[in-house]
Every structure is written in structure tokens, then in C-alpha cells.
Amino acid sequence: MSxxxxxxxxxxxxxxHRSIQATSAEFRQLGRSGLxxxxxxxxxxxxxxxxxxxxxxxxxxxxPLLKYAYDKGxxxxxxxxxxxxxxxxxxxxxxxxxxxIPRRKLTLMTKCYRVWAxxxxxxxxxxxxxxxxxLRSIVNKNGAFYHNDGSDSEEIVRRVCEVARRRxxxxxxxxxxxxxxxVTAPIIGFSSAERIDEALAARGKVLTEEEERHLxxxxxxxxxxxxx
Length: 228
Hints:
alpha/beta; globular; 9 helices; 228 residues; TIM Barrel; Aldo-keto reductase
């Protein structure tokens, strides 16, 4: 660091300096809007009430998780009024109040109807033999593989496993590396601080063209499943 840079840093308020040091997320421009969003974006489906679904985080776990995400630089939060029948929105507001998060420093996103899950509901974050081992996949009638038995996607998942083993990455990093070249920022429903750190650790990871072709050539067109 140059003397000039060090001098400028010395004039930065201590709270801002700590915030800069803790930030692990990157920021990207959203299309042509001029709006910059964090990468990743925090998905609010996991936030709300376990009475809605047992894998949803209640207030006691959700609020600290939102604070942790914000401290790491994830300042774009996605929600919907259907999530926990509105409790997802409520808890985001409570987190802002409890932790004194300025509204102007958050980008809140919402939607109607169904959300698209970039990691395929967990399908691209774990090996096929691990399907059914999470609370969410047990509760959901068809597990993590949406509305079919997953047989038409097994080859893709196998290739994700293959690339992950060769690279020494988690499977989620392979999926995120592929996604980050195609969308502004993936929306991820975090269940713990560890999952946040895992997603942030994918920053800067890039697949080769050969690896991308290897992943994509197994794809077969699928029917639209309730969303466009």
C-alpha cells in the first residue's frame, strides 16, 4: 500500500474501515439500470416462520443470519409476500431496526408467483446419493429434484461432481462459477453463516471453456415447471 493510500485510509471513519475490511461480496451493475447489487443476493425464502415449512428459519436464527450477511457485504435481499405468508418481509424489517441497518444501504427485491432457484433446489450443491439427507428434501415430497425422480439430470450432476473433484472445489462453487458468467448475481437461500462463507469463497472462480462445454452438453430441454 502506498503512503498516499495509507494516508487516505487513515482518514476513513473506523466503522467504515471495519465494514470495508469485512466485505467479501462483489458488486455488479444490474442490467442497464445503473443499480448495483451484491453478488450473491440473499434469498428470503428461508427466512420467516417454521410453521410455514419446518426448514424455514425463525426469528431467533434469521435475524443474526441477516446481520451476518449484511456485514459480509451482501446488501441485496430478495423476498416475496408469499414467503411464510409475509413473515419473510417482516423479519427483514426487524433486522434493519434491531441492527440499525440504514434502509438506503439495502436493496430489497420482491416478486410475484414463483422464484427461480439457481442451484436447482440443492440439486447442484450436493451429490445425487446425498439427496434426501436434508430436512428440506425430506419435507418436500419429491426431494431436491423438483417434480421428477432426477433421472434426466443425473448426468449433469455427475459431471458437476467430476469437475468439483478435479478442481478441489465444493459442488456449489462449480454451479456458481457457471452461473456467474450468465446472470448478474445468483439468488441464494442461505441456511447458515457457513453457507454464506461457502458462497462468498466462490468469488473469482472461473471454469474453462472446455469445462463449461462438458457440463452443458449433457443438458436436454425440459418443460417449464411453473415459472417463466
